[in-house]
Amino acid sequence: MDDERAIDFVLNGQQHHLSRTQVLAAAARGGPEPIYKHWVSVDDQLWPPRQLFERAAGVARSEFISHAAIRYLRRLGFSTSPLPQESEAPPKPGPPEPEPALTPPAIDVGSAVTSFIELLRFFGDEDLSSRVLRLEDRLEGADRETVDDRLADEGLTDGLLKAALLVRQHAGRINDLIHAAMIVRALPKVLEPGERIAVRPSLAAGNDPSRKFDLETNLRVAEFKAGQWKGRDAMRKRGLVADLVGLVLGRGDRRAELYVLGHLPIEFLRNSNSTMEWALGRSSPHLRRAYDDRFESASYTVRQFTEGPAADVALKDLAEVLRIP
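-> structure tokens emitted (325 positions)
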């Protein structure tokens, strides 16, 4: 199957292994940063190649250039923007070259805060969809002389556009920030007297091979999932089950904990009749082999696995730990 595709490569003298499933899983954790030139397409969404490759391979983006990321991601079957030497070649099937992103000049923190406040004022209490419908109605029949007059009281100014671009530029990695902040703020509340962090924690989304878990102490191992579920979360469900299996397989004699945000992930694990075969369908081949070696069958449902082999993995709601409303 295409999702089984994997490559081995050497980068800066270090041997690496990367699979297509790892890239898909990385794309399921948060959204892309703004695109300035190069892109890679994953499930019809465009990503900066360096951001996605860093997240999937666990290699800091300062260690490689976009051209290298593009070459490796292409070997895994993903469509990308053309490299410079290909500019004269016929275009390959795939997404069109994106327009260069409009970006405001570098602005200090005070300006960023002002921009964010301006956006909050624009949104106000009105549903954005309703506001867009009203804007569309007002624009029907307008010409170049009347567009500004018709929308004069709506606040869609050049300043608002620059504010939105600035906030998007700095918020591209907001999900990674949330993941890191939730772990950091949870640590004083969950660590016990005498407990010490034994391995450098993984605060960014995705763990490298030397760090199997987000948190590893002398007493416990733990994974943190900070995504906000909305009810249809297939990739998040698969990632959650993969983390649960990883905890069961790699905990050793320490206790294991899985921290999530909200009640929906816990309800899924405790009540879902989806098969483990489906849930692990896009996990790494290494994890699936380890699961098969230990449990011999994927006939478990998610609920049965949670109640059985994973029964002593503590499921904890970060909203309760951090007292998030």
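The first helix runs from residue 20 to 27.
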